[in-house]
Structure to design on (319 residues):
């Protein structure tokens, strides 16, 4: 049984008390953004947990991951409504600190998921172990390059904890374990595919001898893929990408991307809601839940486990 199916089966068995209540609790789930496949999969996981624990899940987030003010407005509106719990993926590590303080004053439990912030006013943090995911990506890059070469990074955006941790983990391992690999350039893609493509184009122009590239998110990876294809460098520059989308899966199959480092966003969304349900039912969830990332190569794409991970049946939960 896959991890996802096991989670849902367990949820059905342990949520009888919640399911027998006539008045459903409401949990607000607020992502960094709603436009990327990663967040759609998180939404599916959150809604699956809501269905099986018999709670209402309200999904609302900004369109762009850089729209800090809009996310603050959404969080504050949920606090004003006094929802029963809030799950939040912080767009920026400092912007939501006061909102979490207000939630604590209102005695609304908060689970932070995917990306943390500079506050201890939350119940549980649910996320991929992003530092370790970055380290994993660095070791994959070193394997592809036989431990030597010049590489570049397309970063996400300043202030994002999750992606900053990945980037830190990647840089740490390259510096400590692979002295013959040099990071010769880094630019921010600002969670935008077009800007990420432009950043990758700039780096490729400045460093025609580049051997490898690492991107820490889906939009930066998608933009970099476009840059590599436009310059006929697919397969010539080793490319370790993070997260997935339909186009990235095809690029992995076509050899544009060498390795994908992927999370399980469905499980992140499911666990975020589950921790809040546990709290509402009188339990004390752990302060931190770390989930592991994994690598996917072209020859693994047709395995049932990888297919379920990369292409979850989100329509089953979103309809």
């Amino acid at each position: 049984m896959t991890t996802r199916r096991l989670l849902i089966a367990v949820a059905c068995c342990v949520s009888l008390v919640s399911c027998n209540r006539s008045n459903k609790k409401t949990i607000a789930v607020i992502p960094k953004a709603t436009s990327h496949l990663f967040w759609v999969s998180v939404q599916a996981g959150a809604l699956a947990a809501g269905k099986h624990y018999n709670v209402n899940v309200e999904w609302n987030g900004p369109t762009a991951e850089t729209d800090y003010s809009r996310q603050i407005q959404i969080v504050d509106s949920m606090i004003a409504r006094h929802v029963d719990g809030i799950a939040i993926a912080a767009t920026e590590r400092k912007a939501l600190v006061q909102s979490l303080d207000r939630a604590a004053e209102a005695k609304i439990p908060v689970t932070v998921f995917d990306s943390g912030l500079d506050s201890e006013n939350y119940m549980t943090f649910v996320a991929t172990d992003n530092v370790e995911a970055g380290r994993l990506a660095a070791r994959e890059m070193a394997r592809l390059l036989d431990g030597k070469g010049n590489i570049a990074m397309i970063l996400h955006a300043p202030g994002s904890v999750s992606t900053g941790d990945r980037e830190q983990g990647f840089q740490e391992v390259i510096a400590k374990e692979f002295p013959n690999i040099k990071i010769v350039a880094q630019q921010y893609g600002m969670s935008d595919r077009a800007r990420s493509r432009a950043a990758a184009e700039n780096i490729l122009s400045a460093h025609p001898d580049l051997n490898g590239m690492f991107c820490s998110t889906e939009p930066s990876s998608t933009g970099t893929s476009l840059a590599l294809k436009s310059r006929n460098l697919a397969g010539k520059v080793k490319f370790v990408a993070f997260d997935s989308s339909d186009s990235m899966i095809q690029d992995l199959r076509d050899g544009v991307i060498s390795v994908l480092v992927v999370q399980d966003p469905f499980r992140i969304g499911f666990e975020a809601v589950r921790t809040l349900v546990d709290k509402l039912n009188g339990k004390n969830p752990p302060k931190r839940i770390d989930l592991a990332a994994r690598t996917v190569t072209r020859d693994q794409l047709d395995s049932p486990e990888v297919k379920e991970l990369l292409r979850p049946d989100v329509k089953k939960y979103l309809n």
Notes: Residues 109 and 237 are 46 Å apart (CA to CA). Residues 10-22 have pLDDT under 50 and may be disordered. The two ends are 25 Å apart (CA to CA). The longest helix spans residues 37-53.
